Amino acid sequence: HRHDHGHDNEHDHAHDHQHTQGIRAFSLTFDTPLDGQKLSFAMELLRMTHGGNLLRVKGILNVADEPLPFVVHGVQHVFYPPTTLDSWPSDDRRSRFVFITKDLTETRIQEVLRPLFSETSPTRPEAFFTPDE
Questions:
Q1: CA distances (Å), origin 53, targets 18, 46, 81, 88
Q2: 1 pLDDT tier (thresholds 50, 70, 90)
Q3: Tens of pLDDT along 103-129?
Q4: How far from each other are the two terminal CA atoms of the chain, in whole angstroms?
Q5: SS3 for 127?
Q6: Which residues have C-beta within 8 Å of that of residue 81, sequence separation ≥ 6?
Q7: Angle 36-50/106-113 helices, nearest 10 degrees?
Q8: By the 8 A CB rule, do 55 and 26 touch?
Q9: Number of H helices, E strands in the chain
Q10: What digits encode the pLDDT tens for the residues 37-60?
Q11: Which spans in the chain are helix H?
Q12: For the ranges 15-19, 20-24, 26-30, 36-40, which has the lowest average pLDDT?
């Protein structure tokens, strides 16, 4: 008598392992306050170009000319409206993003975000899109 559940343990283990390949968690920090308009553009750009690979995005952000920290969070193509905290949780006023991604590297996220917050950022939105996207 043969008792078969339609799978073998080796295959299931390999299959389960495949689900975690390509998952990355990393953070990015910006030392100076962020421009609010550029920040909005950056979040929209990330959502549009990489939404399917953004498993989770969280941030506590120092936005220029705003006394309280902004909190942003999103899951894939859904970014929730930013909120503010009642106060900074510490004396550290740097902006910090945390990303959990699938098949999306820290380098690629930096390529999207860092130019937006540099002093020499392009004025044309198409300058942020690469031909392969």
A1: 16, 10, 20, 30
A2: low
A3: 999 988 888 877 777 655 444 444 444
A4: 54
A5: helix
A6: none
A7: 140
A8: no
A9: 3, 6
A10: 888 888 888 899 999 999 999 999
A11: 9-20, 36-50, 106-113
A12: 15-19
* Structure token pair of residue 77: 């193509």
The amino acid that residue 62 corresponds to is N
C-beta of residue 99 within 8 angstroms of C-beta of residue 28: yes
Distance CA 40, CA 86 (A): 21
> Shortest CA distance to 45 belongs to which of 132, 131, 126?
126
Q: 25: part of which helix (H) or strand (E)?
A: strand 23-30
The DSSP call for residue 88 is: -
In angstroms, the CA 25 to CA 27 distance is 7
User: Quick one: pLDDT band at residue 62, thresholds 50, 70, 90?
Assistant: very high
Structure tokens belonging to residue 1 = 């008598």
